[in-house]
Amino acid sequence: METGFIEEENRKNNFIKNIIAEDLEKGKNNGNMITRFPPEPNGFLHIGHAKSICLNFGVAQEFKGKCNLRFDDTNPAKEDQKYIDSIISDVKWLGFNWGEKIYYASDYFNRLYDFAVELIKKGKAYVCGLTAEEMRDYRGTLTQPGKESPDRDRPVAENLDLFGRMKNGEFEDGTYVLRAKIDMASPNINMRDPVIYRIKKMSHPRTKDAWCIYPMYDFTHGISDALEGVTHSLCTLEFQDHRPLYDWLLDEVSAPCHPQQIEFARMNLNYTVMSKRKLQKLVENGHVDGWDDPRLPTIAGIRRRGYTPAAIRNFCNIIGVSKKESRIDVGLLENCLREDLNEVAPRVMAVLNPLKVTIENWSEAGITEELDALNHPQKPEMGKRKIVFSKTIYIEHDDFMENAPKKFFRLAPGREVRLRYAYFITCKDVIKDKEGNVVELICTYDPATRGGDSPDGRKVKGTLHWVSQEGSVPAFVNLYDRLFLAEDPEAENDDFTKNINPESLVRLEGCLVENYLVDAEPEKAYQFERLGYFCADSKESSKEHLIFNRTVTLRDTWAKVSQK
Ligand code: ATP
Ligand code: MG
């Protein structure tokens, strides 16, 4: 993978890097630094996760430490192997490397159980038989302290016996839980004797039927961090109130070390929703076509849309890491993408709404000529390709106007334009159907302008993209746009799906693309000259049935609209 994309100067907008740099300077943790990215495999990753991935793997790379990929797979009810697979593929695609081993919290189930027993023996955990409803009542509120469970002072021996029997499957779901014995009067509700184990008679994707009790997230997370020697446990702000519990647990059990939890603000983007629960709703209710729908902010979706990993990494660097919640303009993400694609995307020609042009003075139909086209006008190292000119060519319907104003620099009766890399043509005649729609233009070409150069210094104002009949193949083009019309889709409506943009996908048929694109690599963006960036769809496009997805427009059209 590329190195150096995390630049020194980016430390300014990343307070966590400063903390780590200081710790290393002071020789804390024996000069080690280990982070982890801990997704729960209950959905696909989204661009918010990319921020966490870039942060955790990024600092490990920069400080020559290590970042573990660890699945937080403690809730078999919601987790699935297909999510594990997609997460692995997404992290890899983003360009990060987790070393030889993938970690799973479920690999620690035995050790976690032993730590729970240790807490019981110390009198710091007890088996509680309150029902879920009673437990809620006993918990108290933000303003009122909780009430102690009648089971709170159960003798150690009895707790050990009951916990062992929970593990052996003697009790049904919901009859008992194991709770940490902390403080029912704590102002922090997380500290009011939180549940650390529950009975769930359910098969687990990895441990199958070995367990019928599963540890809770808070118990699992800190101990897993410690078992892996994590030094800096970076998580989002909603875990700030869990930190006292994280620290309490690690102080009470004989964990090998005590990692430092540091919280940062989640990334939010406008014109989209981010949480897995909401994305799932869009997928399950058929608002989009699966988790990898190119309109979703999932990594799988934006990848299918033609985004590059470099653009996403650059975006994450620019937005930085802070403690302040904010909603980032998706326009910034799109600009990072444009910047990268402008450098790396090959240029090609395609006509989305073709208008037939017959070159009257071309020798005869069927005779073709090959011309050279640059794959990137500013980058000769990207090479050239052959394009085909002939008697029948197609231009964009919009590039012709019958009664054109003076400032219209494209084609109109009697006017001359340049066809990119080909010839100057002049419009001689306009053919219409019965309804008066323009269906064909009759033009002449000037053989002396081959390659698009003017021999006599004659100037034309417009240069049009085009394809020829012989040099092109038909294609479908998906014009994707923002999935939501509202900046904050959840703000004004209780049902965010009411804000879906009905034109978030417009499918065009009968487009024509250069022959060269028959072999377009799926998910690799090309610039269709003057139109935007497009890539072949990785799921549905084939040589016989080409389908291109619009990755992004050439300019930010939304910015213009909102300035009006
Ligand atoms: P969601 O709330 O979207 O369902 P999650 O937090 O439940 O996401 P996890 O699988 O638990 O998803 O997250 C893995 C890691 O990614 C966590 O450390 C979490 O803090 C981080 N993360 C999740 N969403 C964001 C976000 N929007 N911005 C930054 N980090 C995020
Ligand atoms: Mg979660």
Written description of the protein model:
Helices cover 26% and strands 23% of the residues. It has helices at residues 15-26, 47-62, 81-93, 109-121, 132-139, 156-167, 217-227, 243-252, 276-284, 299-305, 309-319, 330-344, 557-563, and strands at residues 34-37, 66-71, 103-104, 125-128, 177-180, 195-199, 213-215, 232-236, 260-264, 267-269, 326-328, 347-348, 350-351, 354-359, 369-374, 384-389, 392-396, 416-419, 424-432, 438-445, 463-464, 466-468, 472-480, 505-514, 525-528, 532-536, 546-552. The strands form seven sheets. Strands 12-25-26-27-23-24-13 form a seven-stranded mixed beta sheet. It has a seven-stranded mixed beta sheet with strand order 21-18-19-20-14-17-22, with no helix packed on it. Strand 19 (424-432) and strand 20 form a beta hairpin. It is α/β, with parallel strands linked by helices and 564 residues long. Bound molecules: adenosine-5'-triphosphate and magnesium ion. The site of adenosine-5'-triphosphate has 14 residues, from helix 2 and strand 8.
Summarize it:
Helices cover 26% and strands 23% of the residues. It has 564 residues and is α/β, with parallel strands linked by helices.
List the helices and strands and how they pair.
Layout: H1 15-26, E1 34-37, H2 47-62, E2 66-71, H3 81-93, E3 103-104, H4 109-121, E4 125-128, H5 132-139, H6 156-167, E5 177-180, E6 195-199, E7 213-215, H7 217-227, E8 232-236, H8 243-252, E9 260-264, E10 267-269, H9 276-284, H10 299-305, H11 309-319, E11 326-328, H12 330-344, E12 347-348, E13 350-351, E14 354-359, E15 369-374, E16 384-389, E17 392-396, E18 416-419, E19 424-432, E20 438-445, E21 463-464, E22 466-468, E23 472-480, E24 505-514, E25 525-528, E26 532-536, E27 546-552, H13 557-563
Helix pairs in contact: 2-11, 7-8, 11-12
Bound molecules: adenosine-5'-triphosphate and magnesium ion (MG).
